[in-house]
Design brief:
Elements lengths: L9 H29 L8 E5 L4 E4 L2 H4 L15 H4 L4 H15 L6 E8 L5 E13 L5 E10 L1 H51 L4 H32 L7 E5 H11 L1 H6 L3 E5 L5 E5 H17 L6 E9 L2 E8 L6 H6 L20 H12 L3 E7 L3 E9 L7
Helix pairs in contact: 5-6, 6-11, 7-9, 9-11
Length: 401
Amino acid sequence: MSEDLQSMPNEQLVQRVQQLEANLALLEAERQKQLNLEYEWSGNLGHWQWDISSNCVTFNSLKATALGYNPSEIDGPIGFEFFTEKLHPEDYERVMENMRSHLFGKSDAYEVEYRIHCKSGDWKWYYDRGVVTKRDPQGKPILVAGIVFDITKSKVLEGFLKETNRELALSNASKNRFFSILAHDLRGPIGSTAAILAELVEGTLGANDLRAMLRVLKESAEQTYRLLENLLSWSSMQNGSYKNHASRLTIDSMIAATVKLLEPQLLHKNLRLKTSLPKDLEVWADDAMINTMVRNLISNAIKFSYKDGQIEIAASANKDWVCVSVKDYGLGMTVAQQEKLFSLTESAHGNGTEGETGSGLGLILCNDIALNNGGELKVVSQLGKGSTLSFVLPMPKAGQV
């Protein structure tokens, strides 16, 4: 029945308004109670409720069947341990602390992501959220209700995106380092070549100066050629265009041929070369790649050796493997330099004993070559006492020719 509020005395009107406000408050409290009890969210695995006093968990069966359990295996009273004992060991304490924090009123909700063990042995990711819906007069929690989502797919995607971002960051860093190498190693010889050619065009040089200039021009051309050769080899391995053509390689003859090519550099620093190479010791690897690696390692030893010093090259066999080492007694490296030695993203190169420059690409290339041929490259170095760089390669197997 409708009421004529305008005709009511003021006092009666105030009372009526207060009564309506009280009724609205009761209705809102009841609505909130229903919201709490029914927990009007929708998770893709459904609702759950935990009766703390009886340790009875009621839940949508999808929460368990998604883990590979049959409905018959979850028939009857289920305690919270049914799920908590399946938590990933790395997630367990975090989940428990999150629940304790909410039960004791330190947080507004229990909300957590965790890995949970499937019956098959796999792991799934669940997102779980709940709130205390009932407490006793002393504030002790009685009921907790919530929802749970299977977020495995999103976690897999998240991991994929993280890995993709990491690879992109590494790719960008590698690209920047690559261009830095080009700029660094090409600037010197090309700049020297331009300056020398300018002097030659002037035609004012004497015979001795002319010979000296031509010697520098020759060294600049050789340095540029070695860089381009390394760049071509490295880039072809990176893009997969280089095909490994493994064959039997005789270590002593291959190293002898490489040393002959590098004799002018050895003579320039008056370096003694000591070798310990078993005759006819063979490896199974790509001829062009291994020649490039040996040339780089010996050139590196020459670069960092002091004048009148010594370089030692040795080889030995151990079961199915051959180890070749190149040792110098030059500058050596710090631990920090060694850790960056094969990285494209961080520079570890330094100048040689007579100011020889370099980018470090040669050793990065050597490391890739060793891996590409089923071996590895190792470094042992001490600052001020020299370095030993060694590579391990497989021996030929019976029938390989």
